[in-house]
Amino acid sequence: MGALPKCYHALTFFVYAFGLYFDHYKLNIPASSSSYRMTHQITGGRWKYLTYIDLVLQCSFFGLCVLNDLLGSETVVANKRSFLQKLRDFLLSTLVVPLGVFIPLIFWGLYAVDRELIFPVSLDAWFPGG
């Protein structure tokens, strides 16, 4: 495998890892600005959001890709594939692609129907729309 896919895996992993880091340690929404902070801390915290679960899954998957690039194999011969390659391929086909497609479709579909269900206007100050 060439250097470009390895660089892509590493870069994507670091982007997702930075997103998780920023969400946990740098993003502080005052409780007075919206009900987001209050509901965010109730049962489940961030883990109750499917988008957050997908973020962790994508970060873990690309971390696994980096590990496979460094320690695993990259072959199409079934009996010569390493455990890391088998795990990576299995996760890609069973979780990463299905959730990676399903979540944006549902998110933007609900957003188009009723924005307040997904992203209240009160959060625009913290997450500007562009």
UniProtKB/TrEMBL annotation:
Q: How does it sit in the membrane?
A: Multi-pass membrane protein
- The transmembrane residues are 90-111
Its annotated compartments are: Endomembrane system
Sorted alphabetically, the Gene Ontology cellular component annotations on this record are: endomembrane system; membrane
Instruction: Cite the InterPro entries for this sequence.
Output: ADTRP_AIG1
Under catalytic activity, the entry for this protein gives: 12-hexadecanoyloxy-octadecanoate + H2O = 12-hydroxyoctadecanoate + hexadecanoate + H(+); 9-(9Z-octadecenoyloxy)-octadecanoate + H2O = 9-hydroxy-octadecanoate + (9Z)-octadecenoate + H(+); 12-(9Z-hexadecenoyloxy)-octadecanoate + H2O = 12-hydroxyoctadecanoate + (9Z)-hexadecenoate + H(+); 9-(9Z-hexadecenoyloxy)-octadecanoate + H2O = (9Z)-hexadecenoate + 9-hydroxy-octadecanoate + H(+)
Note whether Transmembrane helix occurs among the keywords. yes
The answer to whether keyword Transmembrane applies is: yes
Q: What's in the keyword line of the UniProt record?
A: Membrane, Transmembrane, Transmembrane helix
Q: Which domain of life is it from?
A: Eukaryota
Q: Which family does it belong to?
A: Belongs to the AIG1 family.
Protein name stated in the entry = Androgen-dependent TFPI-regulating protein
Source organism: Scylla paramamosain (Mud crab)
